[in-house]
Amino acid sequence: MTPAADSAVLGIAGMAALTYLARAGGLAIARALPATPFVTAFLKHLGTCVIVALVTSTVARSDGPGMIATVVTVAAASRGWPTSAMLAGMAVAAMLRAI
């Protein structure tokens, strides 16, 4: 391999190892935490918080189609359909941007 290829392989392997350690560390911390009502509620709602953070950042820098797609996503998510909400939002954004 060339020196550039060697460093690329080392970089990819290093990032893979760091990603694995971050995920495994999160699982280890979650196992060590006591199962108090607060921790249980926190972990239960963590996925929703991540989705809200993604939507908020999109809305902050969005155009018209993005705003309409956000409204569709929030409406579907409020009915308790998180996966359908994301798919509907992406479909609306794609259709409006294609026009």
Notable features of this structure?
single chain, 99 residues, mainly alpha, flat
Please, could you describe this protein's structure?
The protein has 4 helices and no strands. The chain has helices at 3-32, 37-60, 64-78, 82-98. Helix 3 packs antiparallel against helix 4 (82-98). The longest helix has 30 residues, at 3-32.
Q: Number of helix segments?
A: 4
Strand content: under 5%
Distance between the termini: 48 Å
Q: Report the mean per-residue pLDDT as an integer.
A: 85
Q: What is the 3D shape?
A: flat
Summarize the amount of helix as a percent range.
over 70%
Sequence stretches where pLDDT stays below 50 over 5 or more residues: none
Could you describe the largest sheet, including whether it forms a barrel?
none
Structural category: mainly alpha
What's the Cα radius of gyration? 20 Å
SSE string = HHHH
The tally of beta strands, per DSSP, is: 0
